[in-house]
Prior knowledge:
The protein is of the alpha+beta class. The protein is built from two helices and six strands.
Amino acid sequence: MTPDAPASPDASNDVPNSMPRTWSPVTLPDLPPPAGAYSPGVRTANGLLFVSGQTPRDPATGQIVGTTVEEQTRVTLANLERILHAGGARLQDVVSVTVYLVDENDWGVFDKLYRTVFSPPYPTRAVVGASLRGILVEISAIAEVPAVPAVASAR
């Protein structure tokens, strides 16, 4: 690459001896693209699915849904489940969750709803107080994508 040439979209290809990318983005065709520079999810070659922080946005309109932590948690968990499914995983495949709450006092309400979608054995979890710019809850997760069973050949 010459100093005057524009950088390629995948700059890792410009690095000598770079390893090929071993992950791919997970997107949903019926959703608007993220406002920021991130993928809604990323699936690795070794079967891990990383889900970016999901928020209480309506998938069709992008508008925030709900004014209480209870309403927003329901929508956020549904959005999390949509990305998991798009990446080949389910809620029971989640191994780690990070939760961001504007008001740490909402932990009890959040936890009650969380237990309606996750069941023992629970994934690891961290709950962090955060300033979220107009929303009350955000959830990111890591899941292990189940291996696809081999199809038996007909004899």
